[in-house]
Design brief:
single chain; mainly alpha; three-stranded mixed sheet
Length: 131
Amino acid sequence: MKIRDELNRELDFACDELIDVLQDIKNHREQEIDELKQKIRKYEEKKRAEETFYRSLSPVRKFFASRPPNHHQAVEYMVHVKDRLKQINGIKNRIKQIEGIISSCRDHSSEELEVSSAMTEEILQYRKGQV
């Protein structure tokens, strides 16, 4: 089966081999999602612990406790949560593309598949062992 992208690069794969490669790439991407979710959980647990500690302080200690301003907390949230959620959504879109290619390969509807150049790059990186 031939794979072609927008840049007219062609790759030749046996259908079974292509499915195995794509499944491995998909599994790797799912692991990335799990790692990102774990980082988000750790950040949220840390913030909850800090908030609990701050609430447990006496009013006098609260006065002397250094607490970051709200806009700093908002930036922290954007960096640690919102950006990672965007990455997760991007990875999920990639996984959907991979599943679409796998299903079209299983259908054997044509001898040539049109994929995005990003997908071709992922396949080439996997071949080199960099994924």
